[in-house]
Amino acid sequence: MKEGNGNLLALLFPFIILFVFFYLFIILPQQRREKKHREMIKNLKKGDYVFTSSGIYGTVSKIDEKTVILKLSENVFVKFDKSAIQEVLKKEE
């Protein structure tokens, strides 16, 4: 019986190593990025200068529960989903 258990462990060992590798180098960093992005969205304020995932720069004009309105230039406003905000470049002072 000891031989059978050893063979089973030898068969499972590469899969265990592969799972640990995927968790440490793929899943965990992705979870950290998502958490950081959620915090950034949560801390958005009117007047912040932001960059969207579609490549548009603008100033936050209004924030709703799920959307944000960006001012791109004088009298030009665009509505985005909050998740489209990629980065806050300059916080309101």
From TrEMBL:
Q: How does it sit in the membrane?
A: Single-pass membrane protein
Q: Where are the transmembrane segments?
A: 6-28
Asked if Transport is a keyword of the record, the answer is yes
Any one of the GO BP annotations: protein transport
Q: Where in the cell is it found?
A: Cell membrane
Q: Cellular component GO terms, alphabetically? A: plasma membrane
Q: Which domain of life is it from?
A: Bacteria
The protein's UniProt keywords, in alphabetical order, are:
Cell membrane, Membrane, Protein transport, Translocation, Transmembrane, Transmembrane helix, Transport
Tell me which NCBIfam families the record gives. yajC
* Record family assignment: Belongs to the YajC family.
Q: Which PANTHER family match?
A: SEC TRANSLOCON ACCESSORY COMPLEX SUBUNIT YAJC
Indicate what this protein is called per its UniProt record: Preprotein translocase subunit YajC
